[in-house]
Amino acid sequence: MGKALDGVRVLDFTHVQSGPTCTQLLAWFGADVIKVERPGEGDVTRGQLRDVPNADSLYFTMLNSNKRSITLDTKNPEGKKVLEELVKICDVMVENFAPGALDRMGFTWERIQELNPRIILASVKGFGPGPFEDCKVYENVAQCTGGSASTTGFRDGLPLVTAAQIGDSGTGLHLALGIVTALYQRTLTGRGQKVLCAMQDAVLNFCRVKMRDQQRLDRGPLREYSQFGEGLPFGDTVPRAGNDSGGGQPGRILKCKGWETDPNAYIYFITQAPVWAKICDVIGEPEWKTDPNYATPAARLPHLNEIFTRIEAWTMAHTKFEAMEILNGLDIPCGPVLSMKEIAADESLYATGTLVELDHPTRGKYLTVGNPIKLSDNDVEVERSPLLGEHTEEILAEVLGLSGDEIERIKTSGAVGETVRLAAE
Ligand code: COA
Asked: Whose CA is nearest to atom 23 of ligand 1?
């Protein structure tokens, strides 16, 4: 068994969520990820939403597995020199600072290439070139500007952001693909290149189907949206569609037994056309198989509210897991709405490494989400996140090959701040 990115060294100059998710994935594919952090505080997320006093937060620990941490004040001349040395020996540099921050630090693309023409410089920014390119951006800003918020929620409610971090983690995922693609191209050309992923673009990529609907709207109403069946007119922009699913397979979230007290006693039910007859049988409406109002997908579209009300009467008589079992047995696509608590208790997710329990020297045991991408020849174990500066000396000595005297000089200059000494783990 191997490591897919064995031998790839990543200079991880990222913070918060978008960049760190990208480099965490690279680490899970076996790259040596060296996270550069400001002495003293490090990545701001170490201290955000803390649940254990004086210990790195879950926010940080769940985004920075399998990395090494070096503290470096890159505005200190010695610190800058160390960063330059790291640029020279790394294959990839990843950053998600505010626009212009890296240039202000003296690391323009030209300078980076001068130091290492083979390096891949990968950046997350809020926007690509254009009117907003200088803006700082966080998750929900990207969801709003990438088309997700305007199309999420109910027609008569506010635009909604989604809990899935499509702006941050979604952009990190896109960036990781850009990086491995650039690494592949480098094997052919010998040259590095810049990889840019704008959060607005990543969100829009996830909202591709809504841009499809925007164009379909010019040619008539969106017949699979509930508002069509309700006879409500469409405007000139894609409306929020609640829980309607698209394509030719209308779906809704329906109540299940216990919904009155359990906020997650719901199931997503899809009226997939090929299994319509089975749906009619299971809900006790066998005549709908031949009734011209229900027999074909097109005929059903104006009756979706009525159809789902009838299906819901059936789902409400079952728990979400009973309904799932019955429907799965009939090949009818459905999915129970699982709470985070239920997911955290799912043994099968631990068996695949999608959920992993780790031990941490200052916070104790914690749960994290492991690598969702499974490669048959990549056996990297998920490891805890590093303490701030835990590997500073190790990186200076082993990666950069500096002598004890040189390391002492760097330490005296203040470039690395306090170095961490771990009690034997
Ligand atoms: N040593 C010295 N200085 C350091 C440093 C180090 N190790 N690491 C960072 N800094 C400095 C930067 O050089 C910058 O200084 P400058 O403003 O004087 O040039 C400063 O720290 C702050 O960086 P910045 O990125 O502006 O942080 P912020 O907290 O103000 O903004 C974001 C945070 C996320 C809004 C911003 O980084 C951003 O828009 N990033 C791109 C989009 C993105 O990834 N957003 C999602 C985050 S999940």
From this structure: 97
Return the amino acid letter for 216. Answer: R
Other CB atoms within 10 Å distance of the CB of residue 319: 17
Exposed/middle/buried for residue 220 (C-beta within 10 Å: 0-12, 13-18, 19+): exposed
State whether 124 and 257 are in the same domain: no
Structural domain for 133, as ranges: 9-205+348-413
Q: Of 297, 332, 367, which residue sits at a domain end?
A: 332
28 within 8 A of 65, measured Cβ to Cβ: yes
**Cβ(18) – ligand 1 distance below 6 Å:** yes
* 50 located within any domain: yes
What is the per-residue pLDDT across 362-405, written as a single tens digit (0 to 9) for each? 999 999 999 999 999 999 999 999 999 999 999 999 999 999 99
Strands of the 120-125 sheet, one edge to the other: 67-71, 32-37, 9-13, 92-95, 120-125, 194-198
Cα(108) to centroid of ligand 1, in Å?
15
What Å distances lie between residue 309 and 189, 241, 271, 289, 304, CA to CA?
A: 60, 17, 13, 17, 8
Q: Report the C-alpha gap between 262 and 274 in whole angstroms.
A: 32
In the set 12, 32, 168, 244, the catalytic residue is 168
Q: What is the pLDDT of residues 206-263, one digit of tens each?
A: 999 999 999 999 999 998 898 998 899 999 999 999 999 877 789 999 999 999 999 9
Instruction: Give me ligand 1 centre to Cα 60, in Å.
Output: 16
Tell whether 273 and 381 lie within a shared domain. Answer: no
Would you place residue 425 in the very low, low, confident or very high pLDDT band (cuts 50, 70, 90)? Answer: very low
Helix, strand, or coil (residue 92)? strand
At residue 1 the predicted structure's pLDDT band, cuts being 50, 70 and 90, is: confident
Same domain, 16 and 153: yes
Structure tokens at 115: 């130091």
What is the pLDDT at residue 424? Answer: 44
172 plus 310 within the same structural domain:
no
Active site residue 168: yes
178 occurs within a structural domain: yes
Q: Which of 332, 362, 394 is the last residue of a domain?
A: 332
Q: Could you tell me the pTM of the whole model?
A: 0.95
Are 131 and 99 in contact, with CB atoms under 8 Å apart? no
User: Is 291 part of a structural domain of the chain?
Assistant: yes
- Residue 97 beta carbon below 6 angstroms from any ligand 1 atom: yes
* Calpha distance 253→249 (Å, rounded): 13
Given a cut of 90, is residue 312 above it in pLDDT?
yes
